[in-house]
């Protein structure tokens, strides 16, 4: 697998916006579903310049969200969107979805995402989403216009959220691209 680290580049997220270290740590933990080699490369890319990868991520610290967005975008380019989907899907565990109602599950995903960022402008909800029922077993889920992570990352989160909410394997959840509204960045229909 190619190296995913690179020089820091500017992200479209506000530079002062930060993401919780615990979120970054969970992202690295989820990477093991791809491979232990990928997990180690991701750890090295996210630990930060000038620090040893064995130092790990300080879960109590806040990290510039632009660094995380840049790394995820680089992964998408180098390793492909499926790697991002798999990694993101692992970030949502059974303990994250404490309901059998998809609407509540997606709302909880949105609330938890909001808790993982701070110091940015109120409009800079880097991980916000919304969901509505289309019909039984089909939900339209969209990221808001200020969403900064790659679409494949959101799809992985949506797949696991739906799977745990309705009690089906992740593989039984299908994702179809949908046309985003004017105030949305990315939209999908999630079905099971």
Give a verbal description of the structure.
With about 190 residues, the chain is of the alpha+beta class. The chain folds into two domains: about 20-90, no CATH class; about 95-190. It contains six helices and seven strands, in the order βααβαααβββαββ. It has helices at about 20-30, 35-45, 65-80, 80-90, 100-115, 150-165; strands at about 20, 60-65, 115-120, 130-135, 140-145, 175-180, 185-190. The strands form two sheets. It has a four-stranded antiparallel β-sheet. Strands 2-1-3 form a three-stranded antiparallel β-sheet. Helix 3 crosses helix 4 (about 80-90) and helix 4 packs across helix 6 (about 150-165). The longest helix is centred in the last third of the chain and has 16 residues, at about 150-165. It starts with 17 loop residues before the first strand and ends with a strand.
Distance between the termini: 32 Å
The description of the largest β-sheet is:
4 strands, antiparallel
| CA gyration radius, whole angstroms | 16 Å
Count of the domains: 2
Tell me the structural class.
alpha+beta
Count up the helices.
6
Q: Average pLDDT across residues?
A: 83
Q: What share of the residues lie within helices?
A: 40-55%
Number of strands: 7
Identify the overall geometry: globular
Lateral arrangement of strands in the main beta sheet: 4-5-7-6
Q: Provide the β-strand percentage band.
A: 15-25%
Low-confidence stretches: 6-11
Q: Please trace the helix and strand order, writing H or E for each element.
A: EHHEHHHEEEHEE
């Amino acid at each position: 697998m190619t190296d995913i680290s690179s020089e820091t580049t500017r992200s479209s997220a506000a530079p002062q916006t930060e993401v919780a270290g615990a979120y970054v740590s969970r992202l690295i933990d989820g990477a093991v579903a791809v491979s232990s080699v990928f997990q180690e490369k991701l750890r090295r890319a996210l630990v930060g310049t000038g620090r040893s990868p064995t130092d790990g991520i300080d879960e109590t610290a806040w990290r510039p969200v632009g660094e995380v967005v840049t790394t995820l975008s680089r992964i998408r380019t180098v390793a492909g969107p499926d790697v991002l989907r798999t990694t993101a899907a692992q970030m949502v565990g059974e303990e994250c979805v404490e309901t059998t109602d998809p609407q509540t599950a997606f709302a909880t995903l949105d609330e938890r995402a909001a808790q993982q960022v701070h110091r940015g402008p109120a409009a800079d909800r880097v991980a916000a989403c919304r969901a509505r029922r289309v019909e039984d077993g089909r939900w339209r889920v969209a990221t808001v216009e200020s969403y900064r992570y790659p679409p494949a990352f959101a799809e992985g989160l949506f797949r696991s959220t739906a799977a745990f909410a309705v009690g089906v394997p992740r593989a039984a959840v299908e994702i179809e691209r949908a046309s985003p509204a004017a105030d949305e960045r990315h939209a999908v229909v999630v079905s099971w």
